[in-house]
Amino acid sequence: MQELDALQIKWNQRHADPTHQPRAAEVLYQNLHLLPVQGRALDLACGLGGNALLMAKSGLQVTAWDLSQVAINRLKGYAEAQGFKHLQAEVRDLGRESLPVESFDIIVVSYFLERALVAPLITALKPGGLLFYQTFTRISVDGQGPSNPDFRLADNELLRLFEPLAVRYYREENRLGSLTRGVRDVAMLVAEKPRVNEPRE
Question: Which strand ranges, in their side-by-side order, compose the sheet holding 186-192?
């Protein structure tokens, strides 16, 4: 309980910084064309809700969850200001609450790595649903992200974690080529849950 309170305090303080503004993950921004024209989306560990706001703007029914009450309050303010009545933001402890089964057409996770949630995330997707995932890798170029390697992905780990899904987009550049170009320090995945009676080949 004390650990949870400490986490909430940490993220409440970070999200209270007015210089921090909502920003969608690159994996979602670059692949907006893959979104369905309608459906239910979840922005998991949403922070200030950059992904949620972008999906709401695209016409999806969006649910956004985060541990931080400050982040959720700010996101509600942004949604109200933009007239997004189809965006519902809630405080949720992802370590204690289960994900609903086959409930979302889209799930977006950015800069949050909890390996124990991999199976529940897959289960929460509807058949044919898409997962957009982006977070830090252990191979780092500019030193962004958490210092604890447990909260960073090993080489190609994101592919292995979501192996039951069909990969539709993947990017992880490691230290190849010119380090001043490209997308470094992160891995990005868009993957589709197989539809019923549609086995993977």
Answer: 87-91, 61-66, 40-44, 104-110, 125-136, 186-192, 166-171
Token couple for 179: 């380090």
Question: Which phi-psi region, left, alpha or beta, contains residue 134 (left: φ > 0; alpha: ψ -120 to 50)?
Answer: beta
Q: What are phi and psi of 74, to 5 degrees?
A: -65, -40
Q: What is the pLDDT of residues 29-62, one digit of tens each?
A: 999 999 999 999 999 999 999 999 999 999 999 9
Q: Is the pTM of this model over 0.85?
A: yes
The helix/strand/coil state of 198 is coil
Q: Is 42 in contact with 65 (CB distance < 8 Å)?
A: yes
Residue with tokens 């893959």: 34
Q: 């809630």: which residue's tokens?
A: 90
CA 49 – CA 112 distance, rounded (Å): 13
Q: Which residues contact 165 (CB under 8 A, 6 or more apart)?
A: 122, 131, 191, 192, 193, 194
Residue with tokens 């982006």: 134
Both tokens assigned to 48: 């200030």
88 DSSP β-pair partners: 63
